[in-house]
Amino acid sequence: MTKNTGSQSRQPSVLDNFKPLLIDVAVPLGSYYLFKDGFGTSTFAALAWSSVVPAVRTVWSLVAERKTNALAGLILVVNVVSLLLSFVSGDPRLMLAKDSGVSSVVAIGILVSVRLGKPMMTAGMKPFLVKGDAAKEAAWQRLTSGGAADSAAFRRKENAFSIVWGVVLFAECVARFVGAYTIPVDTMVWLGSVFLIGAMAIGFVVSGGLAVEPMERILKAEVEAEAGRTERPAVTVAA
Fold first, then answer.
1. Nearest partner of 54 among 194, 178, 193, 165, judged by Cα
2. Does residue 200 fall inside a structural domain?
3. Which of 38, 124, 134, 238 is 20 to 30 A away from residue 163, measured at CA?
4. Helices (H), strands (E): how many in the chain?
């Protein structure tokens, strides 16, 4: 009998997966009020300095992982470009509106990736379903490559997962943009975080029901079907 040992790679915990979101929401929000109220900087300067944190975190994660991450790279490029434009204009409302630009580009990128047959959000969803299990990993490969009976249904749900997140992020982008030019800046600083957290909550609930749970059932059925095929005794034919 074999045992799982501590040498196995540790699967990411819930905290590990939510850590980037907590950093990108809590740290910029806290640093904004620190710079503005604690150090007495202008509203624009406080927004500018607090916007540096997500960009630095994204660069660090890309360097630390030492592999290409399309979504992280896209977010980084949009953040840098919009931050530079905001510095040129000196407009604090544009600084707030840049966050909607990030959401819109990411949302469009996700939807385009579905159209191209390479849904961008799959990379973030797969570890939750496979959980480092070799049988599930093999079943995933069969389902996504078209080598299983339920491949078509599995791919539809995979696409649905990315479509949900693309639509949710685009809606969040519209809300942020409207708020940036209609709501007082100090209010929009924290309200923008509420928009993001609300969008994430909606995305998790809707994508979970429409895609993740059905995919989990299909994956489990494929693992069981493969186990049945492997364990099926060979039929001997009498001479």
1. 193
2. yes
3. 134
4. 9, 0
Range of the domain at 207: 15-231
**Rg of the chain, C-alpha, whole Å:** 22
Q: Would you say residue 5 lies in a domain? A: no
DSSP type of residue 10: P
State the Cα–Cα distance between residues 20 and 41, nearest whole angstrom.
27
Q: How many domains does the chain have?
A: 1
Query: CA 145, CA 215: separation in Å to the nearest integer?
Result: 15
Q: How many residues does the chain have?
A: 239
Structural tokens at position 157? 């749900």
Q: List pLDDT tens digits, range 36-75.
A: 666 777 776 766 777 676 667 667 766 766 555 555 566 6
How distant, in Å, are the alpha carbons of 39, 95, 183, 190, 207 from that of 17?
33, 27, 32, 22, 17
Closest CA to 225 of 127, 151, 159, 158: 151
Q: What is the pLDDT of residues 96-114, one digit of tens each?
A: 887 777 778 788 988 999 9
Task: Name the nearest CA neighbour of 107 among 95, 120, 126.
Answer: 120
What are the φ/ψ torsions at residue 38 (nearest 5 degrees)?
Answer: -80, -45
| Both tokens assigned to 115 | 């159209």
pLDDT digits (tens, 9 = 90+) for 131-154: 889 999 999 999 999 888 999 999
Q: Looking at the domain assignment, is residue 196 inside a domain? A: yes
